[in-house]
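Incident review: delayed structure delivery

Summary: a single-chain prediction request sat in the queue longer than the usual turnaround. Root cause was a stuck worker, restarted by the on-call engineer. No data loss occurred. The affected request and its eventual output are reproduced below so the record is complete for anyone auditing the incident later.

Affected input:
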Amino acid sequence: MTVNIDLSGRTALIAGGSSGIGLGIAHKFREAGAQVHVTGTRPNASDYGEGELDDLIFHSLDVADSAAVEAFATQFNALDILVSSVGIVAYGGAEYEIETFRKVIDVNLNGVMHLCVCFRDLLQGTETREGTIVLVGSTSSFIATPGQPAYSASKGALLTLTKSLAQAWARKGIRVNGIAPGFVKTKLTQRSWEDKKCPAKRPREFRSGAGVNRRKWATPPCSWLHQWPPI
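Output delivered after worker restart:
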């Protein structure tokens, strides 16, 4: 069943929305009529591929930099939807080194929490609207990925963080949900595209699941949802 969603008049921020899953979500929200802000770690929008950030408002931001996140949040006067799709991973056994482990946790977990806290007041619901937070996890939230202890730990913790924030902020009129996609063909996962547990033996193209967030978690038809289902 197709659900047509109108996000006209709403403002969305997709942290990590300059590439990968976040970029796909950003474009879907824009198609639905929202004003969409995206963040990425490169200095300028021109540093990304031609046309990738069309009609999106780009901001350079390192979510692991607490001071930068706090300063960034002050630029907003209103926000309806916050999606965190930030994430890094280290290959070749690097995550067993404590400095690398700490770096991954700082981005994938601590940075996400800081974003949520900094935008909490803007997202707080009213009689006519409610705020929505969507945290993008991974199947690694449930099944550890060999050789990636930091990434697996961060995504496992993100699952519990999602549930904790959902319980804590529901009465503030903020819905907090998470999604846990499997391997999607992005730059982050290019070294792990062959998912041996996937019968199709190929990564998911984002287009095949691009409507998930737009249809469900950030929209009024699911105003009763406060949960974390894997997809």
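Verification: Helices lie at 20-31, 66-73, 98-123, 149-169, 211-215.
Action items: add queue-age alerting; document worker restart procedure.
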